[in-house]
Specification:
CATH topology: 2-enoyl-CoA Hydratase, Chain A, domain 1
Low-confidence stretches: 1-18
Radius of gyration: 18 Å
Mean pLDDT: 91
CATH superfamily: 2-enoyl-CoA Hydratase, Chain A, domain 1
Number of helices: 9
Strand order of the largest sheet: 5-6-7-8-9-10-11
Oligomer: single chain
Largest sheet: 7 strands, mixed
Length: 279
């Protein structure tokens, strides 16, 4: 445990301390296993023997899922404005610029169209490294436009969620994205076009309460944290200890909120089976 934390990072949450893709030559898993990053990449960023799923972003998911990593990104230059002139420990626009420089992303989601084992598909993938994968106006708009692309070309949609919830810097505007994306997905359902939702670690807040749980199939990676409020908040609110494994993908599956859990190494083939079945 560190004795000090940098004060210029602002408010820290437990999820912010976890790295996404390891950036060194070696990666040490929470269980203590040390793996070379080359081996980790060849194993779909799953630690061998332990089956621990390392957090990855849109770049890695696109490489895993799109055939030959070939795709066309949709709305690649869309970025957030600051309609509320919001400032907490720093101005919102400054926080956006810093996140863009650090992650080389425009916002917390990328959407793209390509082929998955020969099947045309639109994939939207959230990046937790961009302000905790928070859902602001850009995330909602890019998902809505991705759905419009699916409706126009009658191709299925896959959304990969990894988020801390709605973006507080956009207040009510971020909450509006819950209704906006849900309404758009209703149009996709009416058109009979498949939508698969993949929940990864963590999927929480307004994302869980909207598009992440509205798939024709809701699936998750092993061990993913899935819920609305965090376990600590719930425990303090109800004043009781929570069940073992509370809000893990396995717990959520046992209580009927997921269809199945899929190992990332088998993800592409399982998605292919699902899409052929839904088609």
């Amino acid at each position: 445990m560190a004795w000090f934390r940098r004060s210029d990072k602002g408010i820290l949450t437990p999820t912010e301390s976890k790295r996404e893709v390891p950036d060194g030559l070696w990666f040490k898993s929470p269980g203590g296993k040390i793996v070379h990053t080359r081996e980790l990449k060849h194993n779909a960023f799953v630690v061998p023997d332990e089956d621990y799923h390392v957090r990855i972003g849109s770049k890695e998911y696109f490489e895993l899922l799109f055939d030959h990593n070939e795709f066309k990104e949709l709305d690649p230059d869309m970025e957030s404005a600051d309609p509320l002139n919001f400032t907490d420990t720093k101005p919102y626009l400054e926080r956006i610029r810093e996140s863009q420089e650090k992650t080389e992303l425009k916002d917390a989601i990328r959407t793209a169209v390509g082929k998955l084992n020969g099947i045309d598909i639109v994939i939207g993938c959230m990046d937790f490294s961009f302000i905790g994968g928070s859902m602001g106006s850009v995330v909602g708009e890019k998902i809505s436009r991705a759905i419009d692309h699916c409706l126009k070309h009658r191709i299925p949609l896959l959304l990969i969620s990894r988020s801390g919830g709605a973006r507080m810097m956009e207040a009510g505007l971020s909450l509006m994205q819950m209704a906006k994306t849900s309404a758009k997905l209703a149009l996709l359902d009416e058109a009979g076009i498949p939508y698969i939702s993949l929940l990864t670690d963590p999927t929480t807040g307004g994302v869980t309460a909207s598009f992440a749980m509205l798939g024709d199939f809701n699936i998750a990676e092993p061990g993913a944290l899935i819920g609305f409020a965090g376990p600590r908040v719930i425990r303090e609110t109800i004043g009781k200890d929570l069940p073992k494994g509370f809000q893990s993908a396995e717990f959520v599956l046992d209580h009927g909120f997921l269809d199945f859990i899929v190992d990332r190494r088998n993800l592409k083939n399982r998605l292919t089976v699902l899409l052929k079945m839904l088609a």
